[in-house]
Amino acid sequence: MRFPLDVPVVFWWRNANGVHQQGEGRSYDLSELGAFVFASACPPEGTQVGLRIPITQFPDVVRPLRMEIEGRVVRIEQVRSGEGRDGFAILSEQTLLRELDNSTRQRNSDLPPKARAPVAHHFSCEVH
After folding, report:
1. Which domain covers residue 60, as residue numbers?
2. Which tens digit of pLDDT belongs to each residue from 99-113?
3. At 28, is the secondary structure helix, strand, or coil?
4. Is residue 116 within 8 Å of residue 103, measured between CB atoms?
5. Ramachandran region of residue 84, left (φ > 0), alpha (ψ -120 to 50) or beta?
6. pTM for this model (two decimals)
7. What is the 3-state secondary structure (H, E, C) of 22-35?
């Protein structure tokens, strides 16, 4: 089942030379198997990619959450009409849902997951 979600997304990958790349976009939808992200610059198809998605604007969310997804780009869509609908789909390999506190939010805001300070509360779901 897919869930529509229009929020900012930060994503990162390593290019063919192993250099860290980072981009920003907006989520279109999420599912237990992956996500689609609108972005003007997309990682190449087949690339391992990480996503960070804030989950903060829901009525029942008491504390801010952040979803972190690691997966592989399985499709790139480029629309020539200039409507800002270019983007990519990823198949997730690991998904974390983190509950954030103020100190973690400030220290970790722009870092990839493996470079961040540990967070006390997290939930993991791996899809194979």
Report:
1. 3-110
2. 877 654 444 455 455
3. strand
4. no
5. left
6. 0.74
7. EEEEEEEEEECCEE
